[in-house]
Amino acid sequence: MNTSHAFRGLSRFALAALPLAVIAHAAQAQDVSSDGDVTHQTLNPMVVTAALAPRTADESLASVTLLDEATLRRQDPTSLTDLLRGQPGGDVTTQGSFGKQSSLFLRGTGSNANVLLIDGIRLRSATSGAAAWEFLDPRMFERAEIVRGPRGSLYGADAVGGVIQLFTPEGEGEPTPRITVGGGSFDSRRYGASLSGAEGGTRYHFAASRFDTEGAPVRRGGDDKGYDNTTGLVRLSHTFDGGAEVGMLALRGRGSTEFDASGPAEDDFVQQVAAVYAEAPVTETWSSRLTLSEARDERDTLAPTYASLFETRTRTANWKNTLAFGPHELVLGAEYSEDDLGDSQTSGLSFDEESRDNRAVFAQALLDFLPLTSQLSLRHDDNEAFGEELTGSLALGYALDDHHIARASYGTAFRAPTFNELYFPFVGSSNPDLEAETSDTVEIGVRGQYANWFWDLAAYQTDVDELIALDASFRPVNVNQARIRGVELSAGVEVDDWTLATALTWTDPEDRATGKRLARRATQSLRLDIDRELGDWSMGATWIAQGNRYNDSANQQRLPGYGIVNLRAGWQFAPLWSLRATVENVMDKEYATAQGADFDPVTWASIPFDYINAGRAAFLSVHFGSQ
């Protein structure tokens, strides 16, 4: 990348960080009258994804963001992608709004180079390698953890850019019913109901939701493209007197979405996870957990020129053991998983191979020699399709004082070739000899943690080898290398009735063979969330701004940057009753983060068009129950 461009990018990044100085000044003033040893839990939350064990954010030695239940309820997004857009290190592209195909790039890596977990269960398509973020209803979850950086030594394949874990409610306290009814622009309707609670050692949570909309055009001059999603959730667990625990999870979402494929087209989809687990203390210092799960990703497509069915069933057995040695912990485990494509086919043609299994063992040491802490992890995967991979990581943290922790880490990861890349049915469009992409990442960071605010600064470089790309005959081969550099700055403040969170991201994702930017990645991103409680009222706003990107690897199809503002307000007008209103894209901006192409049968030319997102959209909902 041209160094002058990089300098200008960093300069803009520094200028965009100026509002943080204002935030810091306000929070520091509040800290003067606060107990410096008391930190708001939401500012230094407990997270589990970064280290396979509970750690506060500053102890995790990772770049991690928590979106808690209060954040999800305040923002009340219609789509999970709206919640993730502009988060630190995160970049979302969509082919329209409301259930249209979406990709999440973490730290510039591909959408198939990060991992989605739901309560520890991995969900993704084995044919494309990516998760269907657009089909998950955010109302089913009470929090989300976004861990950036390689986690291959903990979670195996594809954890190159990071891991996002969604958590469903466990249930606690007295039986608590909740009901939601709402609607808004584009003839959209939302319904939801849940019941949660606990009695004795048993916890339970039941929930159901429905969202349907006539949708908006995905291209200029096009017709509205509708979407509907019906989701159900059951979660049960029981803790015995001796400390043993058993539980189960069942989440299923299904529906349909219309899209454009040189004419009207429609996807019918299913997203499902199911699991049972048992956990018990073997001794006072040793606990063991066994989880059996199945995840299902299904997409049945009918388009003018083709029909296809892609389904993945991933069955997994995971055994994890945690041993405590004073302030230190050791995690040991093993995992077996099998991907099964079932009846997957496209245009009547089936895959040459329809299943593969993976065996893995892993270990992690969490060592605490205050003020120095360290994390060491190692994992070995043996995959039936592409062979063996060994990944590892080392992270070191040093407490500079009571409020500041410096960290440094090195980690390796790999991305597994997908079934499409290995065995796609069309002649010459796949390559069964592909090897896994491999990566090395170095990161340094520092975090400031105070009573009413925090800030976190991280810089990293990821080098990817054996990058899978298409050759001149459109056959996937291991040819390319990529280098991704980036800087992330995030901060959060809770002062009086104000809650503020901001994220600044600068990324340089470069194809080393061409010097071009990797396709569909923006290099600059800013997100600012501001909320205030006013008695029975609340109000808030989100500002998201992103720089330009290129739709193609040759950097010829430029998509301009954009900025959008979302507004929200809430009113508790009676005990247990409340109203919520949101207005997304208040300025009615037209913007696109991806392009499609039409084929001209006369000239044999490919004619690109922008996938546009919906304009201004207002939603109003009524809620009953403790929120």
Structure description:
- There is one protein chain.
- The chain is mostly beta strands and 627 residues long.
- It is 8% helix and 59% strand.
- It has a 22-stranded antiparallel β-barrel. A five-stranded mixed β-sheet has the order 3-8-9-6-7. Strands 1-2 form a two-stranded antiparallel sheet.
- Strand 19 (345-346) and strand 20 (349-350) form a beta hairpin.
Radius of gyration based on Cα positions: 24 Å
Count up the helices: 6
Globally, the shape reads: globular
Structural class: mainly beta
Share in helix: under 10%
Low-confidence stretches: 32-38
Terminal CA distance: 48 Å
Q: Secondary-structure blueprint of this entry?
A:
Elements: H1 3-16, H2 18-32, E1 46-47, E2 55-56, E3 63-67, H3 69-75, H4 80-84, E4 90-94, E5 102-106, E6 114-118, E7 121-122, E8 143-148, H5 152-155, E9 162-167, E10 176-184, E11 188-199, E12 202-217, E13 224-239, E14 245-260, E15 264-283, E16 286-302, E17 307-325, E18 328-340, E19 345-346, E20 349-350, E21 355-369, E22 372-383, E23 387-399, E24 404-415, H6 419-423, E25 437-449, E26 453-470, E27 476-495, E28 498-511, E29 524-534, E30 537-546, E31 549-550, E32 558-559, E33 562-574, E34 577-584, E35 592-600, E36 605-612, E37 617-624
Parallel strand pairs: 6-9
Antiparallel strand pairs: 1-2, 3-8, 4-5, 6-7, 8-9, 10-11, 10-37, 11-12, 12-13, 13-14, 14-15, 15-16, 16-17, 17-18, 17-19, 18-21, 19-20, 21-22, 22-23, 23-24, 24-25, 25-26, 26-27, 27-28, 28-29, 29-30, 30-33, 31-32, 33-34, 34-37, 35-36
